[in-house]
Design a protein that fits this description.
The chain has a twelve-stranded mixed beta sheet. The chain has 351 residues and is an alpha/beta fold. The protein has a single domain, classed as TIM Barrel, CATH 3.20.20. The two termini are 34 Å apart. The protein is built from eleven helices and twelve strands. It binds S-adenosylmethionine and iron/sulfur cluster. S-adenosylmethionine (SAM) binds next to β2, β3 and α11.
């Protein structure tokens, strides 16, 4: 059965001989990609101001009344699970700023996702790791962009390296491993630390994921010259400690994995800018104010919160998810001459 949603209605380019959106079965886009991964932002607020994400001052946040409540989050996640979402990642802003985060995690865990993970800056994780694990969180990615205690607060503008290192230990002790460490190398800022992070990962058994700087910073300072290409990261690491690709056919994960030939673990690179992986993307997002987005880089949004707050049914929510995913573009277009940055920056969407 079809939902009779035409391309004209959903605002995408009209094309002939493309089927209408299916209103049952897997969560499909018009290009045939099945969506199984949901990134859910718990808040757009943050206690840090990383140079590649937020401005030092003047960041504007959504009024709290606009943010999804715990009940709304759980309801949306339940509907999404019914549509075939198997992996849920909580993010933000900083998800651990929400006072009800442990309660939310417990209720989401009860829904039975195959994977329930969180990306955090680590500043509040040391104390929360055990309660989160007890509530059912499975694993965390901790962001850390410098292993130099003096440089760390310059990049993140607040916070301290020892606190984040302690949080990583606490997360592992609580069973939130295997731990991944997200590092964004930015040219002229911290790109000299690629080898230090590789050594850190080899020593601790943590998988460091080098993420290319994307044009999603709130200040609009991104330019191509500050992107450290994944190929350069890999070449530098390979020169010190030889690596080889980990074969993962059909893996939709954004990170391309490499292992050290001497058996000392793995690294990942997320080459969104230089080697886009849109062809296998299976992710959709919900912002903290309840908008469903089909891509980090697209302004195509629709408000799930408005449906919930106007008495809409689960079926209404389902159809909005389906419409959003269906009209996803084939790629993010960062490298196209006419690329326009999305109006929301990373912390407002949920990375
Ligand atoms: N506050 C949490 C944190 O920092 O881990 C979660 C949200 S943050 C937006 C999620 C991830 O996005 C982090 O690993 C962060 O380093 C990354 N990130 C933020 N802005 C980015 C940008 N412009 N380009 C690439 N990665 C970015
Ligand atoms: Fe906050 Fe994470 Fe953005 Fe840094 S990257 S400002 S920690 S949301």
């Amino acid at each position: 059965m079809n939902a009779a949603v035409s391309f004209v209605e959903v605002g995408a380019t009209r094309r002939r001989s493309v089927p209408d959106m299916s209103d049952s079965g897997p969560l499909l886009d018009v290009h045939g990609r099945v969506h199984r991964d949901l990134r859910l932002s718990l808040t757009d607020r943050c206690n840090l101001r990383c140079v590649y994400c937020m401005p030092a001052t003047g960041m504007r946040f959504e009024p709290r009344a606009n943010q999804l409540t715990a009940d709304e989050i759980v309801r949306l996640a339940r509907v999404a699970k019914g549509l075939g979402i198997v992996a849920l990642r909580l993010t933000g802003g900083e998800p651990l700023l929400r006072r009800d985060v442990v309660d939310i995690v417990g209720r989401l865990a009860a829904l039975g996702f195959d994977d329930l993970a969180m990306t955090t800056n680590g500043t509040r994780l040391a104390a929360l790791a055990r309660p989160l694990a007890d509530a059912g969180l499975m694993r965390v990615n901790v962001s850390c962009d410098s292993l130099d205690p003096e440089r760390f607060p310059l990049i993140r503008r607040r916070g301290s390296l020892p606190v984040v290192l302690e949080a990583m230990d606490a997360a592992e002790a609580a069973g939130l491993g295997p731990l991944k460490v997200n590092m964004v190398p930015v040219g002229g800022v911290n790109d000299d630390e690629v080898e230090s992070f590789a050594e850190f990962g080899r020593r601790t058994g943590r998988t460091v994921r080098f993420i290319e700087f994307m044009p999603l910073d709130a200040e609009g300072a991104w330019d191509r010259s500050s992107v450290v290409p994944a190929a350069d990261v890999l070449a530098r690491i390979h020169a010190r400690w030889p690596i080889e690709p980990v074969e993962a056919p059909g893996d939709p994960a954004p990170a391309t994995r490499y292992r050290y030939i001497d058996g000392s673990g793995e690294i990942g690179v997320i080459a969104s800018v230089t080697r886009p992986f849109c062809g296998t993307c299976d992710r959709m997002r919900i912002t903290s104010d309840g908008a469903v987005r089909n891509c980090l880089f697209s302004d195509d949004e629709a408000s799930l919160r408005d449906i919930l707050r106007s008495g809409g049914s689960d079926r209404d929510v389902e159809l909005l998810f389906r419409r959003s995913v269906w009209r996803k573009l084939p790629g993010h277009g960062i490298n196209d001459p006419g690329f326009l940055r999305p109006s929301r920056s990373m912390s407002m969407i949920g990375g």
